[in-house]
Amino acid sequence: MSSMMTHNSYGKSRVRLTKVIRHPEHHELKEVSIDIQLEGDFDASYTSGDNSKVVATDSMKNTVYVLAANHPFPDIETFGSDLANHFLKTYDHVSSVEVELQEPRWLRIEHNGKPHPHAFVSGGQETRTAGVHCTRDSRRVESGIEDLVVLKTTASEFWGFIRDQFTTLPEVRDRIFATSVSARWNYQGGWSQYNSTHSRVRALMLEVFASHHSLAVQQTMHAIGEEILAACPEIAEISFSMPNQHRIPFNLTPFGLENGNDIFVTTDEPYGLITATLKRQPVSRARANERRSDKARPPAKM
Amino acid sequence: MSSMMTHNSYGKSRVRLTKVIRHPEHHELKEVSIDIQLEGDFDASYTSGDNSKVVATDSMKNTVYVLAANHPFPDIETFGSDLANHFLKTYDHVSSVEVELQEPRWLRIEHNGKPHPHAFVSGGQETRTAGVHCTRDSRRVESGIEDLVVLKTTASEFWGFIRDQFTTLPEVRDRIFATSVSARWNYQGGWSQYNSTHSRVRALMLEVFASHHSLAVQQTMHAIGEEILAACPEIAEISFSMPNQHRIPFNLTPFGLENGNDIFVTTDEPYGLITATLKRQPVSRARANERRSDKARPPAKM
Amino acid sequence: MSSMMTHNSYGKSRVRLTKVIRHPEHHELKEVSIDIQLEGDFDASYTSGDNSKVVATDSMKNTVYVLAANHPFPDIETFGSDLANHFLKTYDHVSSVEVELQEPRWLRIEHNGKPHPHAFVSGGQETRTAGVHCTRDSRRVESGIEDLVVLKTTASEFWGFIRDQFTTLPEVRDRIFATSVSARWNYQGGWSQYNSTHSRVRALMLEVFASHHSLAVQQTMHAIGEEILAACPEIAEISFSMPNQHRIPFNLTPFGLENGNDIFVTTDEPYGLITATLKRQPVSRARANERRSDKARPPAKM
Amino acid sequence: MSSMMTHNSYGKSRVRLTKVIRHPEHHELKEVSIDIQLEGDFDASYTSGDNSKVVATDSMKNTVYVLAANHPFPDIETFGSDLANHFLKTYDHVSSVEVELQEPRWLRIEHNGKPHPHAFVSGGQETRTAGVHCTRDSRRVESGIEDLVVLKTTASEFWGFIRDQFTTLPEVRDRIFATSVSARWNYQGGWSQYNSTHSRVRALMLEVFASHHSLAVQQTMHAIGEEILAACPEIAEISFSMPNQHRIPFNLTPFGLENGNDIFVTTDEPYGLITATLKRQPVSRARANERRSDKARPPAKM
Asked: Model confidence over B111-126: pLDDT tens digits?
């Protein structure tokens, strides 16, 4: 034998649950797709097909529905945590559990000017996500938003970038800015009000995207991150990924027309992809940085 | 030669256009994907590679952007009609033009309680569609909605169906009803207010879906159709397609629990698929039918 | 009531079946996704929620697996026909049945230079299809191939097309030709050797695509159709749909280089879409046409 | 300011290149989709919209085509490495470059019993991948295969797993085993014959999958990994991800039939997901382990 196994994990993916909570006057709809991965003493299954310590992935699936049955299900973060803990508690040889949860967006149908008590319409491709990673000693909860697709038709520029022999892109002072915001954040201080954080983060994403005058996708991303960290003290760190879904001005010159910055080719690919991670700064260090950055900042670019 | 060509057509698909209409106080965003198909005297291209009558599909693509440049673009039905007419007018040997248009749903971002003048958020996978078919003698305009995904957690039953040796489905008096409504309609009487029809149809779909007590997907579909024909005299005929996106009660019995009609497996497939076409009835025939159906109707099923 | 229902149908879609036929020396693998639609006396379900004549779509699903259990399953056309007949035979009020079948392509893994008796590798996105439509008086069987993706790097030209104010596409004597062939054909004369027809059609598609010198996608499509009709007398009519999956020469001029017809941008959209239907011609009419076309054919274009 | 940016990167994704290498007797077809991400001194773009150090992602796209023009392109690993080095060499403030490459599988069409010189057919959804990560001091090259979909109809068991209150899955001695193999490996010792490694890895995946008698997906994965490390001394480490694409026996009992292990429901979700990483072991340690594992191995399970 010339090889060693340095890592293994396994589990069930795409366990899809719909739970209805029937209040007297209205129903709550919980819909979620769950991926579970276990690590632990599973080597024998790999090396010799000895499954005596294997929790069948089918049993993991059962567990999701059984735990959901009597769970208040306030949010996917809490349910994911309880699910992860269940596996650690039930199986001594499990050392670590990773649970990923994706929740589609359902909106109540407006009916006679009020939200309907039990009828919903899809909120589209956007999903709320959560990730829970638990070991015997640690627990990490992350929350996220994926595919919040936004577009603005002005208040976006892109110029001043490097021009060299590989550059053909013209500078532009007024362009369409379209992207699909995805973000993921974690918490400090034992926070558990995940729904309110999610709402605030989402509102700020839309708010800052709409109102920020953008000199770069990078800059808008950073501005969104700063606003979120300022408004949500429970968030320790937030990471973003934003594709630049280009709208390319169609060249009307061959047809004797001028493009008045209003006719664009809608494209999916290739696309720019911008990422960043912002972290809450200890107050002392923040003050020092402020002083430094006062000096370093370039004069009045914006 | 032992074969004859009995039909041919060709064109450009997925021509994707973004047009911005810049009003002083706000911007309009028009985004559409367009498929064009031409029929006409194109046989020589097929039989001998003689392309002298071929309008290159690349030129069709150009035409979309060129026509869009000076077009008021009130709605996709009007733009599609003008596009179809353009090809008939410009090329004598074109006998028929089919244009299909798909418009994603963009919503204005709410900002300080008001719709933002130039920032938008995606309305999801739902699309507004239009189809225009023009020949030298005729013009047909259809409008549609695709993938309006809705779900209700109660007020849906399904029972009384055939029970035979192939039946295992239990009867159920309270089930989740989830579907993705797609519909397509045409017009009578030279109607051209396509935006208002679209809004009314969409509102009625949501309204009837939410409020109708359903004994079958079929019945809800029919009820939606009847309401639309009643409310929109400009519509001559409407066709529906609705998949039944099943939520299946998870069997908790092996785990010593009872499913209180609240824990479901979310499934995509297999799915029921229900279709129907409803047509406005000439008044005289409607009256006759009413009399007949008074007698024929089964007693008080609902 | 001001509306009448002019059409309805319903059924189950995406019923996915895997059947293994265990011969002593090797196994056969049958995998198919099935869509069923019934028409008949189902109006009451739509108009009043009276389901007494409704065959539940869940029962249709059951029927697929039950019928498959004792079926020799020589091909999807035969299974689809038997399935359609089953519904007509079992339910008097069913007037018409449509069954669509899609079979992915599984290839035997080569093992020691021989096809493995029970291990398979996916043949990709290409599918074999069948469509059966049966009424009390008629039966139509169609076969098809979808998404046979092919590409050739030369022996494809496109020139001589209309040049007008909407044309920017250059003429080209040597281009990449990439497409995804889809076709659908029906039969004459009570044919039932569907597997051999499928093999011959597929082989001819590849053969003609590879060897035909193309002046237009249209011409290659027509050539494939003619060869198939010539080689498969059992086929009455065949329809094609072929997207032109453009590879666009990248403009290297701004970088001081020339594109030696070797560097291309791979694109999915927009795409040309070419269709045609070819029909076997009665011999007498074919002769007359041959005489006419001798005269009409343009001189030596190819 | 209360936040600090702890990470950022950006680049262009889905740059799709087709390159034809025209030999006298045959053509080579290179098709690849490329994602580029740069790290470096880009903070000012985020914090103040100062783009003076930004390489526009459009320029990255241009660079792909320009470098490809005069590149021999022996394999995606080499092209990816040269692309990564280009950015480090050209831009002093770039500290790290990540390039991901995906190559679809094109097969030559067989023509008169020989591979055609310039006509190809798609090999399906399977892709060959490469990942290159370069800094000023380091270079890591990884190769991979994604979505090699395989199925076998026997020689797969699953039993002996934990049975507790969450278990309903029956033990089974003969089941269908279907999966989509994805793997990723890196190299030792300055290897550069990436094409031959890719071919050997792929062949072994099919070979071991077909011939291994499986007691668990885990065990088959491990066996594939061991064979690859044994046969490819250039590989240092290999990681696998294999979904278990379940085929579930359809319950025929309600219909008075028995399922002779031949009628299955084909499912996509939920699915088991199994992963592992195997590493080449230093010879000395391997010997020690061998001795230990002789004792530790459970008696004759297989």
From this structure: 999 999 999 999 999 9
Query: Is C69 within a domain?
Result: yes
Domain membership of residue B115 (yes or no) is yes
Q: Do A194 and A293 fall into the same domain?
A: yes
Q: Which positions in chain B touch D168 (Cβ < 8 Å)?
A: 254
- CATH number of the domain where residue C47 is located: 3.10.270.10
> In chain C, which residues have their Cβ closer than 8 Å to the Cβ of D19?
262-264
**Nearest CA to CA, how far is D258 from chain A (Å)?**
23
Burial of D112 (0-12, 13-18, 19+ CB in 10 A): exposed
- In this structure, is residue B277 part of a structural domain? yes
Assess whether D246 carries a catalytic annotation.
Answer: yes
Catalytic choice (D57, D135, D152, D222): D57
Q: Is residue B142 part of a domain?
A: no
Peptide bond into B282 cis (omega under 30): no
Catalytic residue among D12, D30, D61, D198: D12
- ipTM value for the complex: 0.94
Q: Cα Rg for chain A, rounded, in angstroms?
A: 24
Shared domain for C101 and C231, answered yes or no, is no
Reply yes or no on whether the pLDDT at B20 is more than 60: yes
Residue A220 designated active-site? no
For residue D268, what are the domain limits?
145-302
C113, C154: one domain: no
- Give D134 to chain B, closest Cα distance, Å: 37
Contact A106, B151 (CB under 8 A): yes
Q: Give A228-243 pLDDT, tens digit per residue.
A: 999 999 999 999 999 9
Given an 8 Å threshold on Cβ–Cβ distance, is C66 in contact with D22?
Answer: no
Nearest Cα residue in chain B from D256: B165
Choose among A263, A259, C166, C169: nearest CA to B89: C166
For residue B98, the SS3 value is strand
Three-state secondary structure call for residue C117: strand
A257 and A288 share a domain?
yes
Q: Where are the beta strands (DSSP E) in A112-223?
A: 114-135, 139-152, 177-187
**C298 in the same domain as C152:** yes
pLDDT given at position B299: 35
Over the stretch C273-296, which tens digit does the pLDDT of each residue have?
999 999 998 766 656 555 544 443
Q: Verify that A155 and A248 share a domain, yes or no.
A: yes
Instruction: Give the minimum alpha-carbon distance from C256 to chain B in angstroms, rounded to a whole number.
Output: 27
The answer to whether the Cβ–Cβ distance between B257 and A21 falls below 8 Å is no
Query: Which of C53, C57, C116, C152 is an active site residue?
Result: C57
Contact C273 B301 (CB under 8 A): no
Last residue of one domain, picked from the residues B86, B108, B137: B137
Per-residue model confidence as pLDDT tens digits over A28-58 = 999 999 999 999 999 999 999 999 999 999 9
Q: Do residues B290 and B179 both lie within one domain?
A: yes
Going from the C-alpha of A275 to that of each of A160, A282, B71, C95, the distances in angstroms are 20, 23, 38, 59
Beta carbon pairs, C and D, within 8 Å: 182
**H, E, C per residue of D58-69:** HHHHHHHHHHHH
Instruction: State how far the Cα of A32 lies from the Cα of A14, in Å rounded to an integer.
Output: 9
Closest CA to C241 of C274, C208, C217, C202: C274
Do D118 and C153 count as a contact with CB atoms less than 8 A apart?
Answer: yes
Confidence label for B225 from pLDDT (cuts 50, 70 and 90): very high
Q: Indicate if A12 belongs to the active site.
A: yes
Report the number of distinct structural domains present in chain A.
Answer: 2
Closest partner residue to B2 (CB to CB) among C6, C37, C281 is C281
For chain B, which residues lie within 8 Å of any Cβ of chain D, measuring from their own Cβ? 165-166, 168, 254-256, 268-269
Query: Among the three residues B102, B137, B172, which one is the final residue of a domain in this structure?
Result: B137
Are B124 and A124 inside 8 Å of each other by CB? yes
From the candidates A57, A116, A118, A222, which is the catalytic residue? A57
A212 and A260 co-located in one domain: yes
- CA A196 to chain CA centroid, Å, is 16
- Least CA distance to A17: which residue of chain B? B265
